[in-house]
Write a structure and sequence with these properties.
The protein has about 180 residues and is mostly helical. The protein is about 75% helix and about 0% strand.
Amino acid sequence: MESFKDRSLYIRFIVYFFELYVFYSLEQSTFLNIGEFSAKPMLVVLCFSAIAVFENEITGMIFGIVSGIFLDMIFGVPIGLCAVLLCFLGYVIGVITTYFIKPNLFVFWSISAVTVFVVLLLRFLFFYVLKSVGGLSFVFGKIFLPIMIYSAVTAPVVFLFNRCIYFSKNTGGEKNKKINNF
């Protein structure tokens, strides 16, 4: 018979996969567009960051690969580029938050800001700098900066949602991990 800990891990994985799919769908839709350049929050990256903050490094790597594949499809880059990057970041975030730092809103906010910045910097490099597009400061200031700001504004909502998933009674997160620290 399966133990409660194993069942709770499966339940959380299913909920996390469903959440990633819903955020991927929202990021692809035009529902969240604001501004004249259609800035959208990077919900897939925020969801990945929240999962990596609450879970261990192996889970962070698994969801980093899945989130990276979603981002590769969104950006139209060769499959695997963002997957490898987020797999590495998932491991690093998982180690940091499992062994060194208790996860709270400020920690998540700073980790997600760095993760969004790295992903957008990679996108900026491959789509604009390497293709020698003119007006790089305009592109960065009018397209990428609003995306970073919008992602930073929506990050607490994603954090609180994932915190509720992790510390809910039915998933056993409160028994497996860190102190419930806001």
